[in-house]
Design goal:
- This protein has about 120 residues and is α/β, with parallel strands linked by helices.
- It has one domain.
- It contains four helices and five strands; from the N terminus they run H-E-H-H-E-E-E-H-E.
- A five-stranded mixed β-sheet has the order 1-4-3-2-5.
- Strand 3 and strand 4 form a beta hairpin.
């Protein structure tokens, strides 16, 4: 066995190159940054089935409003919310930005909702 000290090649100990992330322009507004970070609202398989079974139709404009309200709720620390519209009641996990289940307003009037920590009312 060779007990002598050998010189290690220079490139053997180099760390991998670190790429810097692009910082946003100082001219970007807070609203633009917030909009870019906003996740699209996801609909679970269960909620999709309920929307179809119960013949509940929500247009794109209303989905966008629901998504914005869910984002506001998330910023206030709400994790699970009930969203009530004129047509439907939706249970949404704000943390994951996901619609968990849906029912029409008639069905929702006789229900007790548990495990929610926020309610959003939307008049359309």
């Amino acid at each position: 066995m060779d007990h002598r000290i050998h010189q290690v090649p220079q490139n053997a100990l180099q760390y991998p190159a670190v790429t810097k992330t692009k910082q946003s322009d100082a001219t970007s507004s807070f609203q633009e940054i917030l909009t870019q970070q906003q996740q699209p609202l996801k609909i679970s398989k269960h909620a999709s089935q309920r929307l179809t079974e119960r013949n509940i139709h929500i247009d794109d404009k209303q989905w966008q409003m629901i998504g914005e309200k869910v984002q506001e709720a998330k910023e206030k620390g709400i994790t699970d919310s009930l969203i009530v519209t004129n047509k439907a009641a939706l249970l949404v996990n704000a943390k994951n930005h996901t619609v968990v289940t849906a029912m029409d307003r008639e069905e929702a009037t006789s229900r007790i909702f548990t495990n929610i920590n926020g309610t959003i009312l939307i008049n359309d």
